Amino acid sequence: MYTDKVMEHFANPQNVGELPDANGVGEVGNAKCGDIMKMYLKIENGIITDVKFKTFGCGAAIATSSVSTELIKGKSIEDALALSNKTVVEKLGGLPDVKLHCSVLAEQAVKAAIADYYKRQGIDPALFIAGGGDSHAEHHCCGEGDNCG
Amino acid sequence: MWNNNNNKTIYLDNAATTKVSDSVLEGIMPYLQNEYGNPSSLYKLGQSGSRAVTKARESVAAALNCAPAEVYFTGSGSESNNWILHDKNHVIMSEFEHHAVLHSVRGKTSLLPVYDNGLIKVEDLEKTLSENKDVDFVTIMTANNEIGTIQPISDIGAVCKKAGVLFHTDAVQAVGNIPIDVQKMNTGALSLSAHKLHGTKGVGVLYAKKGIKLPPFIYGGAQERGRRAGTENVAGIVGLGIAIEEATRDIEAKNAALLKKRERIYNEVMKIEKVRLNGDLSKRLANNLNFSFEGIEGEALLLQLDLKGIAASSGSACTSGSLDPSHVLLALGLPHEIAHGSLRISMSRYTTDDEVDYFLKELPPIVEKLRAMSPIWNNNE
User: Fold this and answer.
1) Directed axis angle between helix A59-72 and helix A4-11, to 10°?
2) B247: Cβ–Cβ under 8 A, 6 or more apart, which residues?
3) E strand or H helix at A80, and its extent?
4) Per residue in A75-112, pLDDT tens?
5) In a 10 Å sphere around its CB, with 0-12 CB exposed, 13-18 middle and 19+ buried, how is residue B372 labelled?
6) Residue B336 to residues A32, A39, B109, B295, B325: CA-CA distances in angstroms?
7) Cβ(B246)–Cβ(B341) below 8 Å
8) How far does A77 lie from chain B, in Å, by closest CA?
9) What is the edge-to-edge ordering of all strands in the sheet holding B275-277?
10) Chain A with chain B: Cβ pairs closer than 8 A
11) Are B159 and B129 in contact (CB under 8 A)?
12) Do A34 and B336 touch (CB under 8 A)?
């Protein structure tokens, strides 16, 4: 059901762990729904110099987390904010319909971490991120036929 | 390029399906090759098929302790459940029945609670029966498909008998794993499936006691006493006859061997931090264990096991194709996050000690790896 690319990221996820000196941390999803992603960013001069993640979730949740960290590492905040779940899905060679929400979660995790960075800088994240990047408040489970947008 | 070069298969998912036994395969081959006649045909070739179906019906009847005329062949256990339930008005069942039972009643349904040990209470059934005079049917599964717990079927049957209400049991997981006797179980109807006991897929049985109302389910032919039309799956039925004889033979000795393996798995797995067994340990099938590991999600666990060549199952939402984790585990009162982290191990008579060793060697590092990447694991400490 998963592409080789998904299985590659699942079997050997990239950038797993925590960043002790992270200056932007975002967590999305909830345990009730079966997936939580936590993203740690180290941002210097507007560039994401390091990124790590921790994920509780299915194969797709781990793979989308892993590929997202690869896609934003070394990129500017603007580029990272432009990361869409579609790009994540494309990079993985596709995801089953019931797993598309995992790619949305990955996009939200990146935005939540950047929002946290802005807050720590005393900047209102709503100026740059729709909804202020605060998607942790969601209590419904995303799934089939739900783009969670 | 990702490539799983692991050619090993350690099959620990026998509650999902089982491998066809050698004697079943050998026994069905003639009916796929030379003895291909239609059992309804009068010439020799047809009658050979008809005789084979009759013989298989007798084998099933002997295994269940009923009359051959009470055995109806169907296409699956799900079909058997659908058939017996579809015309009932008010059915009492447990809240963790298989979906083929839960979703088959067109009339009213009353659900009995399942307690944290994975069992229902007969008192609850008595109470529900006395409060609902319109109940015309009770169905309780003999053994649960996810956690393997075995219900007090004889007692349940006795209560139904006293109340004058027909009792059916979905014994798909039980037949071949525990002794079955429809007389002792006080059951008027029972469902079973061939592929759960080393027969082939696509064959089921509905046992229906003589005299109970059983309207036709498929129209257009005289097969199965005019109640289930369609040319018989002769090879599959022959295979079931052989499989059920094999599976119900020496059941005690087979279970003693399985219990030894199960005890070993249980003792080793319970050494892992923050793990729980789902369902009662003693009142369950000898081949079944179901654990929940805190901090990890079941599908990820299954995929990691698969990378090591181990096939098992989980009640996580991700593997159920729905948003909620298994209704069975939720019925036990497990929180969602614990239900998401479940792992079902189901052995068969073919499971070896070496396979158990391999599984026990591979599991702990996988749990550790997934917990190391879980954002909710440290929070538990």
Assistant:
1) 80
2) B175, B176, B177, B197, B198
3) helix A77-81
4) 999 999 999 999 999 999 999 998 999 999 999 999 99
5) middle
6) 5, 23, 25, 12, 7
7) no
8) 24
9) B275-277, B288-293, B342-346
10) 81
11) yes
12) yes
- Residue tagged 């298994």 (tokens): B326
* B60 phi, psi to nearest 5 deg: -65, -45
CB B347 within 8 A of CB B261: yes
Query: Which spans in chain B are helix H?
Result: 22-33, 44-64, 77-85, 99-102, 122-131, 153-163, 223-226, 234-248, 251-269, 298-307, 317-320, 327-331, 336-339, 353-372
| B147-167 per-position pLDDT tens digit | 999 999 999 999 999 999 999
| Cβ-nearest to A36 among B321, B325, B375 | B375
Place of tokens 């494309």: A90
3-class secondary structure, B311: strand
| Tokens describing residue B219 | 């129209």
Q: Is there a catalytic annotation at residue B318? A: yes
Q: A78 is written with which tokens? A: 């603007």
A140 burial level (CB within 10 Å; 0-12, 13-18, 19+): exposed
Q: Is the pTM of this model over 0.90?
A: yes
Q: Please determine, for the modelled complex, whether the ipTM score is greater than 0.95.
A: no
How many Å apart are CA B60 and CA B224, to the nearest integer? 14
> Is residue B217 within 8 Å of residue B225, measured between CB atoms?
no
Chain B residues whose CB is inside 8 A of the A8 CB are 1-2
